[in-house]
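[step 3/7] fold_predict: job queued, chain A
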Amino acid sequence: MASRITPTGHTDGERQEIAGSTKPLLFEIAWEVCQQLGGIYTVIRSKVPSIVEHWGSRYCLVGPYNPQTSPTEFEEAQPTGILRDTMNILREQGIEAHYGHWLITGRPRVILLNPESVRPAMGWVKYLLWEHHDISLPADDALINQVVSFGHCVEHLFRAVARVQTARRPIIAHFHEWMGASAIPEVRRAEIPVSIVFTTHATLLGRYLAMNDPWFYDHVPFVDWLADARRFNIEAQVRIERAAAHGCHIFTTVSEITGYECEHLLGRKPDVLLPNGLNIERFVALHEFQNLHRVYKEKINEFVMAHFFPSYSFDLDRTLYFFTSGRFEYRNKGFDLTLEALARLNWRMKQSGTNKTVVFFIITRQPIRSINAEALRRRAMMQEMQHDCRAIADQIGERLFVATSTGKFPAMEELVDDYWRLRLRRLMHVWRSSSMPTVVTHDLMDDSRDEILNQIRSCSLINLPGDPVKVVYHPDFVTTNDPLFGMDYDQFVRGCHLGIFPSSYEPWGYAPLECAALGLPSITSNLAGFGNYVEHNIPDNVRNGMLVLNRRFSAFDESANALTQMMFDFLQMDRRERIAQRNRVQNVSEQFDWHQLGSHYAEAYTQVLTRSGQD
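[step 4/7] structure written:
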């Protein structure tokens, strides 16, 4: 529930705080507060409405201030009570601090600290980390310098909060990832009265190792963390991450599979698991989601017609749209396995003589020059043809009405002008093309080294007319400004039939969860945190449209065959069965609403107050 603004300019919650309270204060610290860089932004932003509903003005986010980007997501305001006094102390110490509200649902209170304002003290801060915690930092790494400077600002923030308190209220500080948690070692050493929760959403070393080792989870118990951190030149970052994991009172992560990784790479087993959720209300379409699927499928149909039909056509009523999406992590995201399974599905569909077609979209981001000129030309011509056909239809309708009202049944030649007939005939002639549809929609900066494109070529998934599986590689995000699709990502997902995300390394995985919230079945893997959670917590998950591929202790070839079978089984479903499954998957998605999963955070906060002696 949003806080009401009173005539004094304060919210109800702020007036309560001014009046005094002994309830705990909760600060949530992350590098992605008010700046979108990755998945943690989604976690925190989607969680805010539920947190604000329970904590009100006792909740405040803390992040870095970037003068170029922060003003677009942040509205500055005047602080009150404890935070007013805290901000005054920080400014007296030369720390640039901004207070206001994040411009998202719930409008949470935010403090943004500018790391650049403590740059002169950087040498001293680095010395203390080396002297006190054996963390040696490079001199010229811009990101590490920013992270450590931010941590220094956060340390002084909590010193100030502890100093201005009169009621001695418990203070909970919840840090996310190593980039937001560099303050933890010094906060603990200084014995500042703060109860610390640290959440790692993925270990830094684990991400590097997984990209280079297909048997990562089998080998992780035997990893020499220091040797491998040095091998990847990330020793400083890993030492900060380990210091945060060991310095917090309560250590958490997002899934069992990541907890296993943390135990071996960070040397501490998580105390609580905090599975990621969504603000499901944002996606709810009640009884309209089937209609929305039809509407957005028609928009995808338009793209497919423009992309393929100048070369050859197929029956769109018997065509299913599959897709995968995510950061360009070729093996971690399972792009390699997906393409291999698609090649096998293509062969199997040929052998079975199916009359269906699968168009598979790969949505990721790679360095590009521009949209492919041929793809743009085909799209523009289709739009022109569509415009002309509508004009002809309007003319036919008007003339047919006039003719029938006078008792005549006109011939077709009388309904359409020669101008439109000739124009349409010329357009149809220019529309046809002897070249094959392109696989990639954009001109890549270096297509000869692109791993996805090279595997597509090696698997011969090159959109031949006789292939029932077609591939469209779109190396950019889908947005409403995209001239090829003309819709946003959520709309694109609603228009598809199946999402495929068989990751080999994915601490959680928002893509299949977003699919569920949008009423779309998906395939994930049990090496992803989400898939692992579904296996253990969602009964009859296959029937409910949350399919989980077994990749743990499974060879690549075995996994590829299993994924092929899953996709082939989906093709055997008729339209009625697919509609029923979309209904079930959307109903099950309600279990992932933050109002349900927020209980795990409440457990972590209860435990941290007990363990730190502030309960």
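[step 5/7] annotate
Residues 373-405 form the longest helix (33 residues).
Residues 1-16 have pLDDT under 50 and may be disordered.
exit 0
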